[in-house]
Write a structure and sequence with these properties.
With 279 residues, the chain is mainly α. 75% of the residues lie in helices and 1% in strands. It has a two-stranded antiparallel sheet. It starts with a helix and ends in a 5-residue tail after the last helix.
Length: 279
Amino acid sequence: MDYYLSVATFAALNAILALGLNLISGFCGQVSLGHAAFYGLGAYAAALCAVAGAPIWLSIPVGMLVAGVFGVITGFAALRVREDFLAIVTMGVGFLFLGVVRKQQWLGAEMGIARIPSPLDKWGYALLSIGAAIALLLLSLHIRRSWMGRAFGAVAQDEDAARSVGIDVAGYKITAFLLGTAAAGLAGGIYAHMTQLIVPDAFNFVQSVTILAMVVVGGIGSSWGVVAGAVLLTLMPEMFRFINDYKLLVYGGLLLVVMRFSPGGLAGLVFRLTGRRLA
């Protein structure tokens, strides 16, 4: 039972990460290849708070706040770049994060932070992560149908046209980064408490590619789709153990196959088969 609870918890955490990236890339059209950095920022901030004696109900929101603040900073830095250049900027954020945490002794350097207080049992973390994923899914669905979602869509389609009709393009870009990175910080805070140990390699470029693969495979822009993609790519390494040794190769190939044969991912496939769109 403990094994299945752990798999369910990680599937929910991956769903949170995928939904967060989908807010940035799927809703607002801003390419991000450094999402794992914000996952790590949330984990490290929550871990430091917990080690200092803060309760879990405080340390996790602090992780979200820290990740969101750095997300806003990244959003400001990315205002003047688009597409490929934006991808390079966000990738650089990921490498910068790893470079810093690996050299700072107060962050544990390569050894990371251990003995993080863990006040919940496996059932508690499973319920917390699944509940957070459901809440974020509902928020994403609400945003999609709101004025904010329409503004995000306009920015994603054509920034100049959106600006010409009075949409605050810069403001919505920064808002997307704030929401998406705060979600990553939420996942990071739960992860830190659950595992009681965090190391830099848990938030490397491979993790960013994995999150991106979940979004693309599920169907970029579809909240239900990215949740399905997150669950699928969480279960795949459990069902086929060899994938763990070749994640970049497998996920890179999966991205190529999906973009070639089903650009809409699982959500697009469902639409073609049933005629119904996954929100």
